[in-house]
Amino acid sequence: MTDAAAPAPRHAAPRVLWLGVLMAVLVLLAALSVAIGTREVGLDDIAAALRGQVDTIEQAAVAARIPRTVLAALAGASLGMAGAIMQGVTRNPLADPGILGVNLGASLAIAVAVAWFGIASAQAFIWVAILGAGGTAVFVYAVGSLGRGGPTPLKLALAGMATSVAFSSLVVAVMLSRGDIAGGLQAWQIGGVGGATFARMVHVLPFLALGLAIGLGSARKLNSLALGDDMAAGLGERVAVVRAIASLGAILLCGATTAICGPIGFVGLVVPHLCRLLVGVDHRWLLPFSALAGAALLVGSDILGRILARPSELDVGIVTAFIGAPFFIWIVRHARVKEL
Q1: 165-189: per-residue pLDDT in tens?
Q2: Domains of the chain: total
Q3: What CATH number should be reported for the domain holding residue 98?
Q4: Left (φ > 0), alpha (ψ -120 to 50) or beta: where does 90 sit?
Q5: Is the pTM of this model over 0.90?
Q6: Which domain holds residue 182?
């Protein structure tokens, strides 16, 4: 991207300061996530569990929270960046893996694959989820492009929400037809990070790493798209190729996250909007900030879910819905669904 296409310059010092603050908040939340749960633990138990000891119930509890915290951070970072990419690709302030139906597409694909084809391996789950997310993204964009005016933000949001409702009903229909797997699918459908293990996470790490790399590598080109298709083409960008590559990164992030956590909504909607208040619209800063803020939001939501429902807990997908739904209404009312 040429300098003429770059966003208006901002001083780097405030951004670096906010970056440090955000990283400190994430570290603090991660420490709280390890320490807080249904069972009280002390610093000695935490230190022992970090060294790999599980001699007591308290140490075993801490050992179970560590991978859960890591998974929440990874999932939040992936969904936060995916939301920022989707909003940049579509120039749609309402774009989000949940609102555009991408997460539900991955969910439906997994439900069908489990019920009708009997898939059970972690690798198969990931590939099925990615294909479902990708197919849904193409479908929603095609439907939102119909009619006069092309793929406007409002049409894309309506197409995505209609697709989400339809796919959610289809998931229920699949579960009703297979009572033997309905319980597991229903629990997974809520979206959560409970029961996380490092062995399960290993399978999704390559997909998440590739998605993050593609997203960060597309930052400059997303800045060009923000100027409009005609201007981006005039600056030498192949608009369709840029959109396809950046969307691939978002689909990998959404699909892999949904495969291991289930569909978690609103993280990709809330986080990019808040990060724009801190760093502006330059995707070279917005994407990494969205990843860090998304990780902090999901780890914090997981902690909140444990506190609010003690001695039980709320899945993180329920907590993010409570946070994100009012935010979505506020955007619709005050942002008037303008393009970015």
Answers
A1: 899 889 888 888 877 777 777 777 7
A2: 1
A3: 1.10.3470.10
A4: alpha
A5: no
A6: 3-334
